[in-house]
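User: Structure tokens for this complex, please. No commentary.
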Amino acid sequence: MDWKGITVYVTGGSSGIGLESAKQLLDKGARVALFARGEQALTAVAEAFRLRSDQPEVFSLSMDVSQWNDVELKINETVDRFGAPDVVVNCAGVGAVDHFEKIDAAAFDQVMAINVSGSRNVAAATVPWLKKNKGALVLVASSAGFIPVFGYSAYSTSKFAVMGFAEVLRYELARFGIQVSLFCPSEVDTPLLEKEKATIPKETRALKNFGGVLSVEVAADKLIKGIEQGRFLIVPGVRTKILYWMRRIVPGPLYRFGADFTAMLGATRGG
Ligand SMILES: NC(=O)c1ccc[n+]([C@@H]2O[C@H](COP(=O)([O-])OP(=O)(O)OC[C@H]3O[C@@H](n4cnc5c(N)ncnc54)[C@H](OP(=O)(O)O)[C@@H]3O)[C@@H](O)[C@H]2O)c1
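Assistant:
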């Protein structure tokens, strides 16, 4: 796939997977619009991109994906000032890891608002343009969207929802020539992972060790290759692929026995 001149919108573009995907896409010749809430970080990233190469076409705008009015306004402004998207990658997302009883209502609601409603809002504001351009929409879920993870009562719930949402969109939007993709990595070395360290239970650590950790460079490369190959489900890394198939093939009671046993070992051995 030739990315030259392709307009890509990347939410969560100021950090982690979104930032690295934007960087790699710009290197391939794409035009990139970046979105995140924090304006200062976003402007700094856009400025750094402009300095990196001769004529990078970069645009940035502060936007909160959980607020529909803001998303509608900012996407329309971006279409006017930078051009309509050919590809949209929704990387904006937040984590939350702790025992269920320590995740209060406000924290739970915030995860759902950003990860679930955010996916809906970004899709709703961009699909009309993607229809016109026969473009691609990428939603970022997680392996925690197909495997229930101890300590992820909010996060896994939100990512299971994103998986369901993407399945439905794929179904509905295929007839308009829109390619929908769902990116499901296990751990990726980003600031989000760093933040988790403060509250991660030992049981969660033990379970997550199965998936391994990908560098952000490899994760973004797999995401972009998945788009190029027109894949719906993009599961990067051999270990995460094994987890995906294990969850589908191993009967539920046996799977849950293994998961409970791993959590118990994690609790006694310290993760
Ligand atoms: N890292 C992992 O291990 C991992 C594994 C599987 C899946 N994922 C998923 O990958 C995505 C990216 O994660 P990451 O690890 O790259 O995280 P990250 O480094 O923390 O970056 C998150 C990005 O999302 C933006 N963001 C957060 N809330 C937002 C909102 N309401 N509106 C707009 N932008 C918002 C952040 O900027 P502001 O805070 O300034 O808004 C930042 O740019 C998330 O959906 C995450 O769940 C990550």
